[in-house]
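Before a colleague's protein record goes any further, I have to sign it off. I want your independent view on whether this chain really folds as the tokens say. The record follows directly below this note.
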Amino acid sequence: MIPLTTNQHSFFFLSISKPTPLSFHPHSLKLKSPFSFFSLSSPTNSNLVRVSNFEVSVFNSDHEEKDKGISIELHDLSPNGPVYQKTLQLVECSMFAALTGLVYFLSNSLAIENYFSCFFSLPIVISSMRWGVDAGRKTLVATTVLLFVLSGPVKALTYLLKHGIVGYTMGTLWRSGASWNLSIFFCTIVRALGSVGFVLISSFLIRENILALITINFHASLTFVLTASGVTSIPSMNLIYNLFGILVILNNGCFMFLLHLLYSVFFTRMGMKSSLRLPRWLEKNI
């Protein structure tokens, strides 16, 4: 008989292939409850909430700053805002300067300057009374520059000496609340100096001393009147100069008085009577 031999590898295989029971330990597995995830994720959520709150606060601050800037711009552009007022002042000054320059240019071209000479200083006075002395100065400079371009330096200087400086002086005194007597006195002096300056400029341009010609003719006329009346004395040239100066001041004083009267009535009709310091007799009659 053949003896049976067993293979040890087969037993090894069988031993391995035998299913091994799993050992189950209840403490080896840990169940994760949903609360543990929430507890782990809660710091992240709190950080997100904080970041979102910070972003919202930054957004609100930026939005408030934009709204504040827009409100400031709208306030500046409102009828009572500084930007609107400055723009309106500039527009009015430029319009007054353009109107005055055009009227002066046409009146000189048509030889009717004497009929409109009382209105050439009015725009400067209106600008000074409405917007201040700076606005009057701007109107004066703009009108002079415009006439310098349109008519040349002679007409520009003529306007400046006879009308521009007078209007600026009157507007400054009226704006500061000066009395009529003081205003008429200073405006008369300025007008007289402007007239003498105009004569000197004309003398320089035509190469002739017009002031000497005026005084010599005045001296001859006065001597003839005295001789015809039986007076044999001849007046000196100093007396002639003094009489000439007095007549120039009287002429300009009468003109400035009428100009003050005309402008007072004009401003009263414009509704600016409260800003004027009128004498009692004129305030009662207007």
